[in-house]
Amino acid sequence: MTRTESNPADGDALLDLGRAIRARRRDLGLTLVQMAALSGLSQPFLSQVERGQARPSMRSLGTIALALGTTAPSLLALPRSAGVSLVHAGDMPSIDNSAQGTARSIAVGARELLPMEFLGGPSEFEEYLEHEGEEIIYVVSGTIEVDLAGEERKTLSVRDSLYFDARVPHRWRVLSEPAWVIAVSTRAH
User: Does this UniProt record's set of keywords contain Transport (predicted)?
Assistant: First the structure.
């Protein structure tokens, strides 16, 4: 976890992310203590995230989302405007995606499609992710290896894409840098 930086837009986006997490938690009737127990994260850390005072890693955000019955991209798709979504490079906070990379939402608002941009990423496989909906991964630069549990691992290079049922446990790692990956999943209902 890293603290918020001085960029005002980044701080506003972290506040919005915290509000989205708090709203989802309250909709489910959970206290911070209950969410801490469900997620395995500390109550003080969760409180800081909800107040926009701490930036969760992508792994922590995924854990929070799982405890809230949703996905990290759903939480990052901050509820701002309906209709058109213009996101400038500095508009959305980057979330740590392992020690080697960052992730950020590249659309705002309650959307059916949840696009994420990943710059860099883990060099070794981390835990599997799984969620409702479908997902497509597109490689802009570098090479990655995707592990779909129970399937042969897939190697994707520049301009390759992989479409799959997101309920299948999945994870990926970077094989060559610079890795720039776009992943789009459908919203869990």
Answer: no
